[in-house]
Amino acid sequence: MSASPATSSTRAAASANWSGHRPLSAIAAAAGGGVPQARIRRVLQDLLEPLARLHAQGQVHGAIAMSTIGLDTSGKTHLLVPPLEPAPDAEGTLRIGGYAAFEQYTDDPEHPCGPWTDVYALSAVAHTMVVGAPPPAALARCVKDTYAPLAGRELGGYDADFLRAVDQGLSMNQQARPQSMEALAAAFGVAVARPEAPEAPAAAAAAEPAPARAAGKGNHIEGGFQVPFPADQVWAFMVDLPAVAACLPGAAIQEHDGDRVKGRIAIKFGPMAAAFNGAARLERDDANRRAVLRGAGQDTLSQSRATGDIAYQVRALEGGQTRVDVDLQYTLQGPLAQFSRSGLVQDFVRRMIADFGKNVGARLGAGADGEAPAQAEFNAVGMFFSVLWMRVKRWFGRAG
């Protein structure tokens, strides 16, 4: 995974995106340090609410720095660049030295990106405005942490609580930082409105597409599998919701009424554990062997909410083979949203789809004997290391 330092192109892009907004890095009074505490608080307060809204949608910005924050003519602060895509820790994305948190440099699920990633960057901005320089780069701090806490320095004009808030936000231990914009606001003594969960537009329900592909949602994963059975037989199986649930490790149907189900699915991957209770309905297009399973649920552990569409199409291949293409679109809101854009988690989901396909094949093959296999079991440890090994091979160019 590459680690890109801040460059002049970053500042140029910021200026181009927001004509007339001056980056803080180009304002000598801001970049030189000694900015009054009240002014730093105003800068942070302007940014906290839009970032809180972003986090409520399950996103992390990941590109906050003195060069990507600007002032308009009224003195209001704005973010000059959009959030990093596809994720702040994705391969090839920009990482601004001194402002990027350690978790942006790793796909280790023990160090996920989340709101605390932007907390680190905002605290680094405050640090720069106090002393005129950002803290040491996170990668260097990981090897040898030379960060000198502001609370231990002679810095007149700043409250001890304010300086401790900067230090806390710059902790290398992400769990020691404020975990949300609301918590950061409290640490710095500023106010920020709590964002409400976004509501789907009313017109969206009336304009739902035909069941061929999942409707657009926050995160997108494609996968599929192939089985040695005729397409009509596979299609009949794929619209039998209890049979499908039996092939999905951790899933259990509690109520079943036609194309509607209520149930529970439990998942564990690295530090992420969830047990979602929810409901789903199946929308079928029998003529084209296409369907969309639309569902929503809530995790009983973290109270995170999930909505998603699983679209699939059954296609006949030569030699009596059948291909099932799967298109997953989903959003997560709440504490688990931090995991939704991780590259490792997306690889994990694709592996789950492949294992689901093996279970489908096994149950179809057992149908002739009249004895269906038992409910599929989930080997979290085995799958975790399998996915991790595949990613390691890809990093070093040995995948094949």
Tell me what the structure shows.
Strand 9 and strand 10 form a beta hairpin. It contains twelve helices and ten strands. It has helices at residues 8-17, 28-31, 37-56, 115-131, 138-143, 160-169, 181-188, 202-206, 231-238, 241-246, 343-366, 380-395, and strands at residues 22-23, 69-71, 77-79, 219-227, 251-257, 260-269, 272-285, 290-299, 305-316, 322-333. The model is unreliable at 1-18, 197-217 and 375-396 (pLDDT under 50). It is an alpha+beta fold. Strands 4-10-9-8-7-6-5 form a seven-stranded antiparallel beta sheet. Strands 1-2-3 form a three-stranded antiparallel beta sheet, with helices on both faces. The longest helix is centred in the C-terminal third of the chain and has 24 residues, at 343-366. The chain is elongated, with a radius of gyration of 24 Å. It is 34% helix and 20% strand.
Shape designation: elongated
Give, in spatial order, the strands making up the sheet with the most strands. Answer: 4-10-9-8-7-6-5
**Helix proportion:** 25-40%
Largest sheet: 7 strands, antiparallel
Order of helices and strands: HEHHEEHHHHHEHHEEEEEEHH
Class per helix and strand makeup:
alpha+beta
Low-confidence stretches: 1-18, 197-217, 375-396
Query: In angstroms, what separates the terminal alpha carbons?
Result: 19 Å
Number of helices: 12
> What's the Cα radius of gyration?
24 Å
Proportion of beta-strand residues: 15-25%
Number of strands: 10
Average pLDDT reading: 79
